[in-house]
Amino acid sequence: MLSIAVIGGGAAGMTAALAAASRGAAVSVFERQARVGRKLAVTGNGRCNLTNLHASPEHYHGEEPGFPAPALRRLDAAGTLEHFRRLGLLTVTEPDGRVYPLSDTAGSVVDVLRYALEGEGVRVLTGCEVKRVRRENGGFRILTDAESHSADRVVVACGGLAGERFGGTGLGYRLLEDLGHRCTPLRQGLVQLRSSSPCCRSLKGVRADALARVFRGDELLAEAAGEVQFTEYGLSGPVIFELSRAALSVPGTLVSLDLVRDLKEEELRDLLLERSRRTPFLPPEDVFVGTVQNRLGRVLARWAGLELKKPLSELTGPEAARLARAAKSFDFPVTGDMGMPNAQVTVGGVRTSGFDPETLESRLCPGLYACGEVLDVDGDCGGYNLQWAWSSGFLAGSSAAEKEHA
Ligand SMILES: Cc1cc2nc3c(=O)[nH]c(=O)nc-3n(C[C@H](O)[C@H](O)[C@H](O)COP(=O)(O)OP(=O)(O)OC[C@H]3O[C@@H](n4cnc5c(N)ncnc54)[C@H](O)[C@@H]3O)c2cc1C
Looking at ligand 1, which atom is closest to the CA of residue 175? Predict the structure, then answer.
């Protein structure tokens, strides 16, 4: 019986193991943490955005833009949902194509995968960090601190550096480099942004629905709409993750938030003037009551330079216009990001030119396969990175089990 060692029990590794085992191979998963799927269990803020119905190669980045296509064809988003349904996981799809488990709990995704591994007879070795992989007699020797195992094929699914607390390490890069592969430069992707705006601190914890635009000078680099979270250091939330690539692509960018995207600037100005007439007794800093969250409204009023001592009834047309402009262009100069430990994904990885995109087998070391984040493929925000983990894991695991014996 063909023996396959899968190194890494994350999203890609578990999928590779299931694909190989269902094709009759004897599969062992080596996982350095105490349990499999630790990172998966915290994805999507604990909800796990497990795929996106719009997953296609255009949503992925790396040195070779076409590289993910064959894997995504072999297991696309619809196929992934069908696969999970067979494992017993029900899902819901949001209007933008993001898919979550119906239970709204990432743990459910980990559970169905764990039980499926057990059902397929996969041997799972937890607390077992692989230190080296050596070629030996046409197969491989896998060395951990305490033991040595042999396998006919090896699938490296060690993930990347992002999300250190949940298992992000550079170990997979090292294992593959020892076998002759090379890495591109690595940096953090899908990450929270730091800003020099003095408003951040006072807005800590506030969330808002906004249209966020990234500018360098007058040039619009990218835009996206959805939830923004204000933090002590800057900006976070799904929209910010999505825009972080553009915001960090060049120095001196600015994130400008339109907090009232359904109204034109003049409409908002008129609404604020109307408010000043109807409720002249309100403190002026409450001028935004009913339009944006109260704390956000007060910070915005100050940021727009509203005269706080005079009564709201004395709000002038130009002042209302200035407030409206502030709400439509609430600006945050970008000064950096929160670094790899807080990022969702690694940009860069093991060079894909060393692997056959049709099988994910190494071109340098036959019988060796790689999948998931360890490769130089990263996706946009919105379920695309997990889709890459499922698709590439499935392709690597099934190719490893299907390939004829040498
Ligand atoms: C906080 C957070 C939230 C995220 N949310 C989403 C989301 O909602 N949707 C989405 O699409 N993507 C999300 N991502 C990204 C997504 O989780 C990753 O892209 C995906 O998990 C990568 O899968 P992987 O199997 O390649 O790596 P991982 O899931 O990181 O798994 C790799 C495994 O290998 C193990 N390992 C490493 N080296 C060794 C070794 N030498 N020996 C043994 N074991 C080893 C690690 O412990 C780990 O368990 C999120 C990431 C983070 C950090």
Answer: 41
Nearest Cα neighbor of 32 from 226, 138, 175 is 175
pTM of the model: 0.93
Residue 327's φ and ψ, nearest 5 degrees, are -70, -25
Q: Is the CB of 13 under 6 A from ligand 1?
A: yes
* CB-CB contact of 389 with 71 (8 Å): no
Handedness of CA 390, 394, 397, 400 (dihedral sign): negative
Give the tokens for residue 151. 């396998």
261-300 pLDDT, tens digit each: 999 999 999 999 999 999 999 999 999 999 999 999 999 9
Nearest-CA residue for ligand 1 atom 6 is 43
Residue 365 DSSP SS3: coil
Strands 130-136 and 91-93: unpaired
Q: What is the edge-to-edge ordering of all strands in the sheet holding 26-30? A: 123-125, 26-30, 3-7, 153-156, 368-370
Exposed/middle/buried for residue 244 (C-beta within 10 Å: 0-12, 13-18, 19+)? buried
